[in-house]
Amino acid sequence: MKSRLDSRDLFRRRLLVSAAFTGVMSLALCGCQQKAPTKYNGIDISGAEYGKNFRLKAPDGSERTLADFKGRAVMLFFGFTQCPDVCPTALARAAEVKRLLGNDGERLQVIFITIDPERDSPEMLKAYTAAFDPSFLALYADVDHTAQTAKEFKVYYKKVPTGSSYTMDHTALSYVYDPDGRLRLALRHEQTAKDYAEDIAKILNPT
């Protein structure tokens, strides 16, 4: 009787060990098949609930939205034409990013949204962005709609008096959308053109 019980116990233990081993192997195989998350130089904000769209005017008076650029990555920056350093640096870097991307540069649309519509006329905006690259697009709205758009993108800006005029303090992030129009990255102003280009290349050519 004892030997029968021992045999049954041994059989049960073997079944439990086999089941446990099978479970561990299944988990290991699942782990091997999962894709490692893509690493970016910038801030991965995929799935963000803000910055989903805009409705603004181009210098030619046409209305533009994010859907107009489907099939291309979009790099978007808020600024103003009389900015002494941050904005020209951002646009010069964007031109270098486009060059570093090679053929993929044709699949990148750079957009500059003014936070100073009181001074930035359509003509000024067109000339300003074209000085960095003819393909760059400037967009604008009236004062109230500009404020609403900036809020939608969590962009801060404020007038700062300077003598008889004023300058603007503002957020210096560049946002990147993938070709399906999804917000994916926030790139910091202190990053290099190479950092930007590496991240945008991954957005354009996901593995």
Could you walk me through the main structural features you see in this protein, from its secondary elements to its overall organization?
By secondary structure, the chain is α+β, with helices and mostly antiparallel strands. The protein has two domains: 1-34; 43-204, Glutaredoxin (3-Layer(aba) Sandwich). 38% of the residues lie in helices and 22% in strands. It is built from five helices and ten strands. 28% of the residues are buried. Residues 15-29 have low confidence and may be disordered. It comes from Acidovorax lacteus. Residues 45-205 form the Thioredoxin domain.
Task: Please tell me what the overall shape is.
Answer: globular
Q: Which sheet architecture does the biggest sheet show?
A: 6 strands, mixed
Helix and strand run: HEEEEHEHEHEEEEH
Number of strands: 10
Number of helices: 5
Uncertain runs: 15-29
How is the largest sheet built, in terms of strand order?
1-10-9-4-5-6
CATH architecture of the largest domain: 3-Layer(aba) Sandwich
Helical content (DSSP H or I, runs of 4+): 25-40%
Rg over CA atoms, rounded to whole Å, is 26 Å
CATH superfamily of the largest domain: Glutaredoxin
CATH class label of the largest domain: Alpha Beta
Distance between the termini: 62 Å
Domain Thioredoxin: 45-205
Protein name: SCO family protein
Family: Belongs to the SCO1/2 family.
Keywords: Copper
